[in-house]
Amino acid sequence: MISWNRFSAEIRLMVLETVLHNGCNLASIATVSQEWQRVIEKHNFSRIRLTPSRLPGFRAIYRNRSLVRYIWFCLELEEYDCTGCSPRDPELWDLSEMDNSLITKGLEDLFSVLSVWQPGGDLTLDISVYSPSDSQHGFKYLTFEPDTVSETQDEHRLVERPMLSKPCSGAGGPSATRTFEAICKVFGEIMSNSPFDNDEQERRWWQQLPLVPIVTRVLLRQQTRRRWRPYTLTQMFTRMPRLQEVHYEPWKEWLHTDIQQRWTDEVLQTLLEAPFLARLRKLVLFENFNTVYPASFGIFNSDPRRITSASMGRALVNASLNLDSLSASFLVDAVDFFEETRGRCLKWPNLRSLALTSELLRPAKNPTKLDDMLRAAAATALNMPNLETMELWNGLEEKAMLVRYRRARLRRPATIEWKGTWEMTLSDPVIEAWDAVALKYSNRACVTIGKLVVTATPIRSHGDAIRLLGLLEMVIRPVSLRQIVRENTILEEMGED
């Protein structure tokens, strides 16, 4: 028999990679050799799923701490039955005292465990808050998954789940529309009514938690429909002194009144103005929405997208000045962002990529205002010496549009291009404005490109639009994009479009 060590390093690596991905019991073969043990341990410990009940055992990990690169921390709330999935009492919409206590105790224990880890490499902390019952009642299509690096990774795991059954009787009866109460239940606010009576009590609680310098990236993905208070997130991120990257995918506020909108903007601004942002390198904000849910709100029915504001644009501009990468989708309109840069002597010395959405990128919108925005974007880009890409986009049902600037690279010239589902013409003043950017940083004018996209598959949602446009910047986590596309596909098949 040929010895394992007689094979070349390349062949041994191919065999090991096959073993790692064929679904066999890795623990049973880790003893084949020290080489196999090293590779399998690195694979097993690189990505870990934790729940509060598993933290005591996780605390005992010493030798393999340096192998951990990703922790998916699942805060599973109490389960409920059909009598509790659509509560009439508004006091039952937010999390219960038991659920909030579970969250605070879980965070206390997690921070205690991670605080003793020596900072060295990068560690991603991915936090999900959900009840296992959420996908058993009015939202049977929901999935709760770890983060992935691509859209297709692990997609086969979802095939076997029977998602097309109607919601239970408590969530809306035979009609597939979810009740107002069922939506409020799943979108309840985290740590709003308990265990703290006010913000000062919560601040003192966070201050007594140890620092966790090991965490460098935080993911708060859209599969958590419960709402984090921006104040809570500010306090949490303050306890992470080496935090460099945040991906935050909140859901839109459904009660779309002027008062509610102003309050939502005010609390979000406190997050964008928090001191921890000064040390971030990358910020990705994606405000998710669903065009079906508002139908359940009756007289409170609202547009699925938010009305953006100048104050939010100003806060995002100020937050962006030290970043390497910024993406903000639907939370802020690009018009407000660039308007807030006018007349200010601002510089973005590190910014390499910028992605923003705008309602002006829709058919039949005012072309003069669109030209003004694109010229303002170019004027802002003049103060971004390291900018490689700027993507301005929008997408909803059946419509999608992208305007993208790419800096000259290697022997390729800078480009200003549009790509979308309707014809767009970039005016001469817009092209001249972007030529000025290209000439400043590459001594060559832009090449203008236009691409009309015709697709045989329907654009059901903003998720389909993102796929169609082929954005270079990761505006949303790949697994979140897959979940959005899948949810809207299933809702259409259930007749909820």
Portion in helices = 25-40%
The biggest sheet, with number of strands, parallel, antiparallel or mixed sense and barrel status, is: 12 strands, mixed
Question: Strand order, biggest sheet?
Answer: 1-2-3-4-5-6-7-8-9-10-11-12
Ranges where pLDDT stays below 50 over 5 or more residues in a row are 155-165, 172-176
Pfam family, one: DUF6546
Protein name: DUF6546 domain-containing protein
Domain DUF6546: 279-477
Q: What does this molecule look like?
A:
It comes from Venturia inaequalis. Residues 279-477 form the DUF6546 domain. InterPro entries: DUF6546 (IPR046676). This is DUF6546 domain-containing protein. The chain has 497 residues and is an alpha/beta fold. Among the domains are: 4-45, no CATH class; 69-249, no CATH class. It has 15 helices and 12 strands. Strands 1-2-3-4-5-6-7-8-9-10-11-12 form a 12-stranded mixed beta sheet, sandwiched between helices. Helix 12 links the parallel strand 8 (353-357) and strand 9. The model is unreliable at 155-165 and 172-176 (pLDDT under 50).
In short:
The chain has 497 residues and is an alpha/beta fold. The protein has helices at 9-20, 26-29, 34-46, 55-59, 97-115, 180-186, 199-207, 230-238, 258-272, 310-320, 334-339, 367-381, 428-442, 462-469, 478-493; strands spanning 47-50, 70-76, 124-130, 217-220, 245-248, 282-286, 325-333, 353-357, 389-396, 399-406, 415-420, 447-452.
How do the helices and strands line up, and which of them pair or pack?
Elements: H1 9-20, H2 26-29, H3 34-46, E1 47-50, H4 55-59, E2 70-76, H5 97-115, E3 124-130, H6 180-186, H7 199-207, E4 217-220, H8 230-238, E5 245-248, H9 258-272, E6 282-286, H10 310-320, E7 325-333, H11 334-339, E8 353-357, H12 367-381, E9 389-396, E10 399-406, E11 415-420, H13 428-442, E12 447-452, H14 462-469, H15 478-493
Parallel strand pairs: 1-2, 2-3, 3-4, 4-5, 5-6, 6-7, 7-8, 8-9, 11-12
Antiparallel strand pairs: 9-10, 10-11
